[in-house]
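Re: that chain you flagged

S.,

Sorry for the slow reply, it's been a week of failed gels. I finally had a moment to sit down with the sequence you sent. For the record, here it is as I used it:
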Amino acid sequence: MPGWQADPDRYPDLAGVPAEFLGASVAAETRTARLRRGLIGALAVLLVLATGTAVIAIRAQQTAIGQRDVAASQVLAARSEQAPDDDPRLAAAAWQAYPTAEARYSMMAVLTRPLRAVFPTRDGYPTSVAFSPDGRTLASSSSNPAEGWVRMLAGFPPDLLAAMCAIPGDSLTRDEWAVYAPDVVPTGCP
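Prediction finished late last night. Pasting the structure tokens below so you have them in one place:
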């Protein structure tokens, strides 16, 4: 409140044009303050509405993602049970998508099946086999000591990665594995 309004006895009353000017000025200031308060209130309401809408949208998105993951898990689990080749990757993918009861059953069914794979050889059967440290690749040695070869197999069913030379009749040790399993597959024996 201006000083002249707080102590009206000290200041004489204005008349005429100055009084009208002062009244218009006070009215304009009051109107501006009222508009400012209204605008701030409207912005606060809009902020609350936007925040509420964002929270609802995020929850709806999370619900939709969860439902999608459950459905994908159930489909993969059903395919795993119907797969004729006993491929455990479908059951693992179902469990990874979402751990549903169907995915759990599929994983349990895969774990109770005997693991079968045929490892192709040129001359009989492998004399020894060893898995890589990460468990993704299998090395098998030749049953014919005269040829002395090692095959690198990966995946299920196994895909031939490389046929590599080794000392005839010997298997690869852990250190030899690192030597004979480089990123570049050798094309022939030294």
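What I noticed first: The helical segments are 3-6, 17-82, 88-97, 101-112, 174-180.

Talk soon,
D.
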